[in-house]
Amino acid sequence: MEYNARPLMKNKPFGAFLLLTGITGFAIIVMRIVCYEFEFVPGYYEVDYGRFNFFSYFTVQSNIYVSFYLVCLALAVFGNERAKKIAFNPMVRLTVTTYILVTGAVYCGGIPMKMTPPLYWDNFQHIMLGTVQVFHHMIMPPFMLILFLIPPTQERIRKRKLWIVAVYPFVYSVFSIIRGAVSNPEFYPYPFYRPEFFWNIFLKGREMNAAAAYLLMLPMLLMGMGVFILIAFVLTLIYNKICKKMTE
After folding, report:
1. Phi, psi (5° rounding) for residue 41?
2. What is the pLDDT of residues 168-209, one digit of tens each?
3. Among 144, 66, 141, 132, which Cα is nearest to 109's?
4. In sequence order, what DSSP letters do the residues of 67-110 get, joined into one string?
5. Which residue among 12, 69, 100, 144 is least enclosed by CB atoms within 10 Å?
6. Residue 45's beta-bridge partner residues?
7. 35-83 pLDDT, tens per residue?
């Protein structure tokens, strides 16, 4: 398949930069696993679930996706045809960008709500943790947004496929809710997956009914998927407009 790629997508120094960034993303995750050390943090981390539980977070999964995509895009710049099929695919670009933007927004939005653990920089462990958090939530989201706004080809995103963006987050959310309910000790990667989270928001003061709490979560979960689709829709409008200008 022939790709009418823009000149930047054939620029070898740009490809090297993308490759380095993608490898850095993988290296940071490996460093976190290898140097794992549990630290009790009241209200945030009170149980040691083990080093590999790190992969349970949407943050980590979305950043793995980002790193994989960056490596593919780098290989595409270097001329690999298989990598082009992935890296130049508009829906792949849309999903990876949407996921990492949600990752950054949830983390940064949780800071004033005190849902996000504070960062400390007084020793190696804290510096490592802080570096991971900043890289995953504050550096990669804007970086991927900028990259998204540089379409590699003129191919546009098909709006009728936007629902695809919500598939993985929905599966991930359902799995996380079920896992939290059956695991011992219970583990929820994010507080809004706990049945009592929305119960305390809408029905605070009443004795919690587990079945009713889960039913209350359903519309909230669907609204959450709507947020993914809404973000993807806005990105699609901008992306397609840029692609249209490329053809003029």
Report:
1. -130, 105
2. 999 999 999 999 999 988 999 999 999 999 999 999 888 999
3. 141
4. HHHHHHHHHHHTT-HHHHHHHT-HHHHHHHHHHHHHHHHHHHHH
5. 12
6. 41
7. 999 988 888 888 999 999 999 999 999 999 999 999 999 999 999 999 9
Rounded Cα distance, 57 and 100, in Å: 12
Which DSSP letter does residue 137 get? I
**CB neighbours (10 Å) of residue 157?**
22
Tokens of 229: 């689709």
Give the Cα-Cα-Cα angle 91, 14, 107 (nearest 5 degrees).
Answer: 55
- Residue type present at position 139: I
Tokens representing 48 are 């040691």
Q: Which residues contact 114 (CB under 8 A, 6 or more apart)?
A: none
Both structure tokens of 225: 């998927």
In angstroms, rounded to a whole number, what is the distance separating the alpha carbons of residues 204 and 239? Answer: 43
| Alpha-carbon span 233 to 243, nearest angstrom | 15
